[in-house]
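Fold Annotation — chain and its backbone

Encoding — discrete vocabulary of local shapes
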Amino acid sequence: MASTSIISMFLLPVILLIWVSPAVLSEKCSPHEKKILLQVKQEFGNPSMLSSWNASTDCCTSAWEGIECTTEKPYRVSQIELHGLDLPGPVDLPPSLFNLVDLDELLIFEMPNLKGQIPPQISNLKKLTVLYLFSTNISGPIPESLAQIKTLTNINLAGNNLSGPLPHLLPSLPSIRVIFADENRISGPIPDSYGSFASSLVTLTLSHNMLSGKIPAALKGLDAELLDLSWNKLEGDGSVLFGAEKKTEEITLAGNMLSFDIGKVEFGRNITRLNLKHNRIYGKLPEGLTKLQHLTRLNVSYNQLCGPIPQGGRLQGYFPIDASSFASNKCLCGPPLPPCK
């Protein structure tokens, strides 16, 4: 009798294993991460567009909307890309997202009903390289804890309702390439630290915010291919943003209160687009503008510039650079404006 009990004890796990569905045994999705994802779905308000997120299926298959997993064991959820979800009403950014610690990319966008704040716990995502949270209604400050995610290369927080100051520590990210934070309500000055971004930085856009104060002299060290600080309330000497040796291709400073002598500015040879309209820039346009061989767009209108427009290069007869590019200045003259007196 005792021997029968021993045999039964060893056979029971085998029998149970046989009863388990082969699909469950072969499932790549971590039970822990599946549980988190289903919690995220619930926190989103169970939108119909996430009906594929089903407890009975493998989350590491193409069946789960917006989910990608690593291709080697141990399988982990590496990417979430969700956009235009049919949220049932205003819902907060799901806090459970920040428990998916192996995420490499988090992309959530085009959801006007998504609100709430980016929590400090975002720093739990230590492997994150790409963070896209744009075109939503999330609010509050950009957390300083973003700077703790040393793997970040791309950040897009544009078109939200973010407010408060720029994070001072963001330039400490060693591999950052792209930062979009335009079309928010970010206020206060640009920190001095923004002159010390890593050389990997390619794009920095902070346009259409409420930034104010003087351009720090430390921004002389800021060198990005695309820089957009337009339509804020910035003042002071914007000439520090230029330099003959900088890699800048596009620079947009329009719609501020910047005041400096443009005649003393040295432009990098790679500039393709230069928009300085609606400021308080003065002086004579430098001859160096005629040497910009890649220039395709230029606008210095609505400033306090004076003197003859340099002749040559792409400053005359190169559409769309025309009279409107130089309009409403103190006393600019010469083609494509009327002749100097």
In short: The chain is about 10% helix and 25% strand. The two ends are 119 Å apart (CA to CA). Residues 6-25 have pLDDT under 50 and may be disordered.
